[in-house]
Fold this protein.
Amino acid sequence: MGSILAGGEKTLAVFPEALRKELRELAELDDSFILTAENYRQYIPRLTGAEYIFSTWGMPALSEQEIKTAFPNLKAVFYAAGSVQYFARPFLNRGIRVFSAWAANAVPVAEYTVAQIVLANAGFFQSTCYHSRGDTERSYPCARLFPGNYGCKVGILGAGQIGTLVIQMLKNYRLQVLVFDPFLSEERAAALGVKKTGLTEIFSECQTISNHLANNEQTVGILNYETCFSHMKDTATFLNTGRGAQVVEEDLVRALREKTNAAAVLDVTFPEPPEQGHPFYTMPNVFLTPHIAGSKGDEVVRMARYMLEEFQRMRQGDPPRYEVTLEMLEHMA
């Protein structure tokens, strides 16, 4: 048995020395090199004995033939990050198991989202636009337009790992949660204590709407003026920690110009960051953050720890928690 590391410049931060020491003992880790898309061919002679890959952001995307050539004995890839969409299919097609730390990465995203929702329902973003400029004649009346959190309607778009965690974390606030997710059954919606409904209904009724839809061809441009943004409340806040491509940005700009007391808090855009000269940079009711909702700093180690624990479960024959299948790729982020 042997294992290797794969990824980019953040690999050693995700797998610090203490954790690599555990992997050397448990999985015979060879961490004398880190496999990347650039050095892949250079290390082929050293890959044939590898049974496991522990990786993170920067995992090389290989073809089935490249995998067959380089990894004849590979059994599993343990990806200490979130989405595996860009590399997983060829491995799965070769019968190699893929595990992802999406659940670990979901924790800080959900924490960030809940914090923004609580602030948004109180009118933090809109009133700040005025108050931070000393325009108290507008800031105080603006702040009084917002309902606060008790009983407030919040819309969650997507009830996958992150969306579900957000819903669970919001229970302490006694909100009314509406959810759009084509894959969410009525039974599961009832178990979560949410109302399943459509996009237009959510944008019409909810004070704050947070996007957590899976990133795939079906969701590109799904959030547009006609279906969504034209129906926003005059004081609504739209949060996006999902993917920028899901938003028709010119439609969002149009709606926010029409509803000047509405706001958007965008941790992701398309492209990211927005191009120079984009209206987002000058609109007072748009708040851009540099993709900070997600694992950062010491939080990244949690993802590697999840994958080490998943490896141990697999070795012991216990049921996996975070395995990805081809079927799951059709609807997950």
